Structures are given as structure tokens and as C-alpha cells.
Amino acid sequence: MTAPPRPYAGWKDLRGFLAPVTAPTARRGGADRGANAPAGGDRPGGAEGAPFTLLFVHHAGGSAAAFAPLPRHLPADWRLLAVDLPGRLMAMGEEGCRSTTEVVAWLAPLTRQVLDGPYGVFGHSMGALVAYELARELAQDGPPPVWVGLSGAPAPGHRPDRDQRHRWSRERLTRFMRELGGTPEEVLAIPDLVGPMVEALRGDLAVVDTYEEHPGRPLRVPLSLFTGADDPVAHPALAAPWADRTTATAAQHSWPGGHFYVYEHAAAVCRSIVDDITAARAATAVRDFSPEHSS
Asked: Which of 51, 56, 87, 250: CA 20 to 30 A from 273?
């Protein structure tokens, strides 16, 4: 009897050619952990000596592969995981999500399985909305991230238009993809590729266009806001109010370019990510060992 096909969507290892990840990888000197083992070892916040994990959530119509240019600019001892949400290209047979509520309900349990220590979350465009809500959800019943990076997304209530773009025609969505950039023109010229890409984009735009901030407390961890200075969707002024969504600090970084500025400035963006995460982890260590937090 043939085994059912394994779902394509889920967390992928950016350093392992996007190999699927279902549980924390083994640490040197320790045994492999099973897929059903509780994440985090025997103490809150993760197992002793666990590596730092950085989670990436892709833009509307994108995939885990969108972050492939970043690993070579990030520390070699960081664990880098990027998610493929359901309903894109090789995962077209899987039912996609149509709201951030559905995405977080699907993604949070998978994320808890793969975490094993300190972690941060970075999302671009639609991925920023998911990263923000995912971080809040994970913090409700487990260790929060030490840092959250939000890229290419206007703050809640600051979207420049309220068009229901997921209802646009295929032709209009194709034009929209071309205007935003990030998709090679030679790809847009292949109808057999454009069709699935447009349908993936349509589903993801439903997530963005119907987004309403989930009720609950703000984050309590540092935020970093990343933008392209010329991005019509999320220029710096539209992203700045994200700072109100945390009780901690919020850094803002901007580079020349449009919505996909990150590919033009990958090395510089990664330097800022590393600097901000390093500062956030240092602040966490100081807080955890301060007198008011000691027993």
C-alpha cells in the first residue's frame, strides 16, 4: 500500500536546501529528539545550549525560498527556518488559509514543535502580519520570542487603501505582481507558471486585505521595523506606528528601493537583524539575572 504523500507546507531549513523540519535538530553531545517530544527541553525557555532559531515568514504569493539569499549573511551558529504556508505552487493541493486567524491556528502548533530554545521571528509584507500575530500567540502559553522583525508592512489601520485585491482578475493581479517587482519578467511570461502564482497570491491577499488586529496584549519584546524608502505599499511613515505594538523598544531601518528592497540590500538588512537581535538577547540576559528577577 502506497503511503500518503507528505504535506509540502511547513517549516523548512534554509541551510539545508529547504529540507522539511518537523522537530528540533540534534545538538552535539545529545540524542535526537523525536517529532512528538515537547519542545524546550526540561526547563522553560528551551534546552541548555540550544542554538538561537530565527523564523522567517514569506510575503503574499511567496514561499520559503524567498529567503534563500539571506543565510550567507547570518551567523553560522543560528538555526534558520522559513515556512511555506499551504496553497502555493508545490503545495497547491493543500487548502490555503484565508485570514491571519487561520494562518496562526495552523502555524502555531507546528512552530511549538520545532522550537528548542531562544528564537526570533522575521516576516516580510504579509509575513509581517503573520509574524506579529504568531509571536503574540506563542507568548500566551510559552516563552516569547526575544525579538520580532517586521518588514514591508504598514502598521494595523495604516494601509494606504482598502481594495479587496483577492477579488481582482488574473490579468490585474499579474500587473500588480509586475508593478511590485520581485518576480522576474521571464517568469511572468510563462502562462503555466503565472497561473499557480496568481492563485497563491490571490489566497494570500485575502489574508492581508481582511486583516484585523487580533485582540489581546501588545508584545513585550523589542521590535525592528524594516522598509524600502520608496515602497508604495509600506513606506517608513506607514510602518512607524508598529512601535506602539510593543512595550519594549522599536528600531526603524530603511533602505533605498521599493517593496522588495531586501533583495537589493540583503547584506545590510542582515547586519541590522544581527545587531538588533544581539542587543535584544543581551537585554534579556540582563533582565533575567537582575535582582528583581532572582529568587
From this structure: 87
